[in-house]
C-alpha cells in the first residue's frame, strides 16, 4: 500500500506514536525531509521544525551519508534496505542501530522513502554467557578505542615521512574531522599534532642519547624545516620529562587526600591506580563486597573480585584512557556466589601532569529495582496477550503532524501486514459500502467539527476479503477550537459460529 505525500489528508503517514524512541522520518526523492518525529532531537540534535522541508539527508547524516549512499540509492531504486550500523548520537553516546529504508510508490513512481532507525544495542550488547548466564559488556564501547588506536598507528608510520593532515586522517579512518580531534584529545590528552610531535621527540631522544645521530641530523630525518625548530621542540620535551619527578610528591599528597575522602564516603566507592590495584575503598564498598579482613589494598581488583576480570577488564582499559562510563544495570557474581544487578559509574582521575592515574568506581545494588521491572514486564506481556485474545486494538490520528497509528491487534483484525501504513483512502475501502460507510463518515465529521466522541458498530471487509463486525470508539482532542488529535479503540465483535465457539471452549 502507498499514498501520495501531497494528498489533502496526509503529507506523510507513519505507523508511529509521538513518544517512540525510534527515529522515524520521510525523505522525498530529492532527499529533502518531509517528516520527522520528536526522537530526531535525541538522535541528531535537531528538532523536526528545523528539519521538515529544510534539511537535506546529507546534512543530518554528516560523514555517515557517504557510507549509507549505496542503501539510499537502493531504496530510490525500489528495493527495501535493512542494515545495521554504529551511530554516535548528538549526546556522544554510541548505539548499535538497525536502519530500514522503505520505498514509497505513488502510481508506480517512487516519490521518496520512509526511514526507521531503532536502537538494537540491548539485542547486541546484552548477550549472555552460555555458561554463567551473566550479561556481557557492550562491545561498542571499545570500537571508538580501536579507531583511535588505528589513528595513532598511522601517526607512528609517518614519523619519518611527515605529518598527515587532519583531513587525510579523517578520510582514511572514516570519521569526521571534528569528532576525530575531540575524541583523540580526550583519549590521549594531547592534540593529534602534539601527540605526533611527542612520538618524534621520543625517537629523537633515544637516537641522540645512543649517539646514533646529532640534533641536526635528527632535524633532517624528521622533516623539520630548520634545526632551530627541532631544537625548540626537543628542549620542551626534555623539560616535560624533568618536571615529572617534581610532580610525584604533589601527586602523593593528592592521593592521600582522595584516599581519606573515599574511606569516609557513605556510598559504595573505590579508588584504583592505573594497574587497577586498590588504593582506597569506602566502608560501604567493603561491606557490600565482603572484603573485611582480606587485606585487599594494593591488590588488583581482578585478584580480589575474580568475576570482574572477564566482565570488566575491557571497560576498565577504555576508562583508563580518560573516558567516563555509566551503566544502568550489569549482572555480576559476588565472591559468595550471589548474583546482583549493579549500577556503575566509572570516572578516571588524573595526575598533576594530566595523565590518567587510575579510576574511581561507584556501584549501587539495584537488584530489587530489576526484580520489580521484571514483574512489570511480565504484567505488560499479560496485558498485551489479553488485548490480543479479546481483539481490542488502539488507534490514533494526529491532525497537526498528519500521522496515524494502528497497533498490531488492529492490523491482525483487518488482516493487513505488520508493515502496513494506514492512509485515509485505503481505510475507507475497508468499510462496507452503504450504511456502514455513511455512519463512519458522519461520526468522523461530527468529531472533527463539534468535538463529539463516538461509539459505532459497522461492517468492514478485511484486506483478505473477509467480513467483520467492528465496534469503533473515538475521542477527539481540541486545541484553540480545532481538533488536533483523534484516538480510540477498535474491537472485533464478529459473532463466532457454533463450530468455532465449541473449538474455542475445548482448546
Automatic annotation (TrEMBL):
Transmembrane segments: none annotated. It comes from the Bacteria. SMART domains: HTH_ARAC. Residues 149-238 form the HTH araC/xylS-type domain. Residues 325-378 form the PAC domain. NCBIfam families: sensory_box. Pfam families: HTH_18, PAS_4. InterPro entries: HTH_AraC, PAS, PAS-assoc_C, PAS-like_dom_sf, PAS_4, PchR_regulatory_protein. GO terms for molecular function: DNA-binding transcription factor activity; sequence-specific DNA binding. The lineage of its organism: Bacteria, Pseudomonadati, Bacteroidota, Sphingobacteriia, Sphingobacteriales. This is PAS domain S-box-containing protein.
Amino acid at each position: 500500500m502507498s499514498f501520495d505525500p501531497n494528498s489533502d489528508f496526509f503529507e506523510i503517514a507513519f505507523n508511529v506514536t509521538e513518544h517512540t524512541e525510534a527515529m522515524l522520518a520521510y525523505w522525498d526523492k530529492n532527499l529533502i525531509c518531509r517528516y520527522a518525529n520528536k526522537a530526531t532531537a535525541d538522535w541528531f540534535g535537531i528538532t523536526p521544525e528545523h528539519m521538515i522541508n529544510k534539511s537535506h539527508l546529507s546534512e543530518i547524516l554528516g560523514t555517515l551519508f557517504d557510507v549509507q549512499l549505496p542503501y539510499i540509492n537502493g531504496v530510490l531504486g525500489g528495493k527495501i534496505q535493512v542494515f545495521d550500523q554504529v551511530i554516535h548520537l548528538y549526546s556522544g553516546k554510541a548505539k548499535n542501530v538497525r536502519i530500514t529504508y522503505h520505498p514509497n510508490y505513488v502510481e508506480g513512481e517512487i516519490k521518496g522513502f520512509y526511514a526507521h532507525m531503532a536502537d538494537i544495542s540491548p539485542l547486541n550488547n546484552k548477550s549472555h554467557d552460555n555458561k554463567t548466564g551473566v550479561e556481557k559488556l557492550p562491545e561498542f564501547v571499545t570500537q571508538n578505542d580501536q579507531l583511535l588506536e588505528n589513528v595513532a598507528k598511522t601517526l607512528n608510520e609517518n614519523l619519518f615521512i611527515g605529518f598527515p593532515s587532519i583531513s587525510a586522517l579523517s578520510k582514511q579512518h572514516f570519521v569526521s574531522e571534528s569528532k576525530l580531534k575531540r575524541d583523540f584529545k580526550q583519549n590521549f590528552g594531547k592534540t593529534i599534532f602534539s601527540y605526533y610531535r611527542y612520538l618524534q621527540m621520543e625517537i629523537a631522544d633515544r637516537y641522540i642519547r645512543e649517539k646514533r645521530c646529532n640534533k641536526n641530523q635528527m632535524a633532517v630525518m624528521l622533516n623539520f624545516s630548520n634545526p632551530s625548530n627541532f631544537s625548540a621542540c626537543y628542549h620542551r620535551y626534555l623539560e616535560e620529562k624533568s618536571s615529572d619527578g617534581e610532580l610525584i610528591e604533589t601527586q602523593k599528597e593528592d592521593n592521600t587526600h582522595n584516599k581519606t575522602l573515599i574511606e569516609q564516603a557513605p556510598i559504595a566507592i573505590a579508588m584504583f591506580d592505573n594497574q587497577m590495584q586498590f588504593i582506597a575503598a569506602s566502608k560501604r564498598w567493603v561491606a557490600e563486597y565482603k572484603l573485611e579482613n582480606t587485606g585487599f589494598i594494593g591488590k588488583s581488583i581482578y585478584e580480589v573480585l575474580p568475576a570482574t576480570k572477564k566482565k570488566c577488564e575491557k571497560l576498565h582499559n577504555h576508562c583508563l584512557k580518560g573516558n567516563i562510563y555509566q551503566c544502568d544495570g550489569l549482572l555480576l557474581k559476588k565472591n559468595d556466589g550471589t548474583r546482583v544487578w549493579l549500577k556503575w559509574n566509572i570516572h578516571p582521575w588524573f595526575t598533576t601532569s594530566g595523565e590518567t592515574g587510575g579510576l574511581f568506581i561507584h556501584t549501587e545494588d539495584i537488584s530489587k529495582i530489576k526484580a520489580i521491572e521484571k514483574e512489570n514486564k511480565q504484567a505488560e506481556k499479560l496485558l498485551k496477550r489479553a488485548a490480543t485474545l479479546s481483539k481490542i486494538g488502539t488507534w490514533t490520528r494526529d491532525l497537526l503532524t498528519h500521522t496515524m497509528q494502528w497497533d498490531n491487534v488492529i492490523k491482525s483484525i483487518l488482516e493487513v501486514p505488520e508493515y502496513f501504513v494506514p492512509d485515509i483512502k485505503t481505510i475507507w475501502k475497508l468499510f462496507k459500502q452503504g450504511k456502514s460507510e455513511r455512519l463512519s463518515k458522519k461520526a468522523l465529521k461530527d468529531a472533527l467539527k463539534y468535538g463529539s466522541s463516538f461509539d459505532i458498530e459497522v461492517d468492514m471487509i478485511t484486506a483478505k476479503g473477509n467480513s467483520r463486525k467492528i465496534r469503533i470508539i473515538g475521542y477527539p482532542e481540541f486545541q484553540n477550537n480545532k481538533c488536533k488529535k483523534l484516538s480510540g479503540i477498535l474491537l472485533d465483535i464478529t459473532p463466532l459460529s457454533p463450530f468455532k465457539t465449541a473449538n474455542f471452549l475445548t482448546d
